[in-house]
Fold:
Amino acid sequence: MSDNVFDTLKERGFIAQVSDEEALRKNLDSGTVTFYIGFDGSASSLHAGSLVPIMAMMHLQRAGHRPIGLVGCGTTMVGDPSGRDEMRQMLSEDTIRANGKAIHAQLDRYLHFDGETSLALDNADWLLPINYIQFLREIGCHFSVNRMLAAEAYKQRLEKGLSFIEFNYQLLQAYDYLHLYQNYGCTLQMGGDDQWGNILAGVDLIRRVEGVKVEAMTFPLLTTASGAKMGKTAAGAVWLDGDLLSPYDYYQYWINCDDRDVGRFLKMFTFLSMAEIQQLDALDGSEIRQAKQVLAFQTTRITHGDKAAEEAQATTEAAFGKQGEMTESDLNAMPTTPITRDRLAQGISPMELFAEVGLTASRGEARRLIKQGGMYINDQRIDNLEYSVNEDSLTPDGILLRAGKKKYHRLIVE
Structure:
């Protein structure tokens, strides 16, 4: 395998479709390429599914190319119909702008924006001031409605209804690419495979307006071996924001992944060499746990830093009893929820508590956990549906809840 970063991305499973593979490989091998990926501003944090484009950007940046982390505050005000059965919720401009700032701060941890070799931009800066009539005359004239309606994103929505505001989305995303080409020399747009039609629209617009050939590349839309969407669990999204999901819980997501996903995740979500990954992927039986520990540590350090990864690893090992009693540092690193003494005095169903802190997705799932022998409180297995958590459950370290062998949560009295 050559040292070309295109081949690296291909070998690691990042590439779904490319506009011109030979041309893109040549461009990446012959000089610095400015490239961009757009991130939606509909939430204040990205989640683990966003790591696919982020890691691809990091590989390209490490190879000497220039990333543009584009937050789409302007396009978020319209709403992307791709992959949606109905129109997205309309958010206020203030909310979208605040989300955009938070996402740029997250991306900065990975891409280290300096304004020259890496750029953080917001398409609201050029989309919001647009003169609508002028935009229709200069940009809309290059789009065929028949061709747009043939795009998969629009075809899927026609039966249930496609709003006119959403119909404009492809024009705006294509205009983003044109703007970035004209102002920053951007010649590569990347995104999820559901964005293929929108990205090609930008390629075509630049060809029509500027007479220049630029490139497009998409990533596969990942699901786990069990069929779940990447970055989603029964308890909710696997957020990259440490305030929304603790580094410990983030570590747990990776260490508890399906055995069948370990090799693929090591390729896509770590920077380990392929030789190291192949060795880890060859492990079998109980030894797979070693590969998962490496995966969890590497992914956590990339997102939350070395210290957080080390604390999450130590807490996990202490919780498994590999290092004896938990230290104060181990306990502090564990996800924690405060509870009032008055509430404890009244007694609380463990099913209610486990659902409340996210150890199970619902009370019904917590009930099943008890019946299967997988619920523990202070390392005592709970097999009685009438069990009550109360003041007698308190230890000097609080109350330790455990679901199965791997998921912990700590309650402390306020």
